[in-house]
Write a structure and sequence with these properties.
The strands form 2 sheets. The protein has a 4-stranded antiparallel sheet, with helices on one face. The chain contains 2 helices and 7 strands; from the N terminus they run H-E-E-E-E-E-H-E-E. It has a single domain, classed as Immunoglobulins (Immunoglobulin-like, Sandwich). It has about 140 residues and is α+β, with helices and mostly antiparallel strands. It is elongated.
């Protein structure tokens, strides 16, 4: 009888790792992100890994542009890798804008940027999360 319990436990672990087995089963929650306000030249992005996940890791990048008075102002950041952190925990990433990017935000009177987060949860395909954030002077 002991072998039967081991098989059932292995099936539960496999189901948690692989995701939903049928349409009615719920998927595990994904990483959550919230953009903070631009202070000086620092743009904070708060990440939260759900408790149902073992850990979260990945990268974050953003870019945006705005046309004002016949000129185009652009802001972008190279992908910033974040190391794994445990499920149920939070992490704040701080992007430092260059002088040119900060000047563009000021001259454009604020720019809305698209933030792309590629998160991995230890096993499986990476998750892509997109959000918009406003950079205001």
């Amino acid at each position: 009888m002991q072998g039967g319990k081991g098989i059932a436990a292995a099936a539960v672990v496999a189901a948690l790792v692989a995701g939903p087995a049928f349409a009615g089963e719920k998927e595990l929650p994904t990483l959550r992100a919230k953009a903070g306000e631009l202070k000086g030249n620092v743009f904070p992005l708060k990440l939260r890994c759900p408790k149902a996940r073992v850990s979260c890791a990945g990268s974050v990048a953003f870019k945006g542009k705005k046309r004002r008075r016949g000129r185009i102002y652009r802001v972008e950041a190279e992908p910033l890798e974040f190391s794994p952190f445990a499920g149920g925990k939070r992490k704040t990433l701080r992007f430092r804008l260059s002088e040119d990017a900060l000047r563009a935000v000021e001259r454009a009177n604020g720019i809305t940027v698209r933030v792309l987060i590629e998160a991995t949860y230890g096993v499986g395909e990476p998750d892509r999360i997109r959000l918009r954030a406003r950079l205001s002077p």
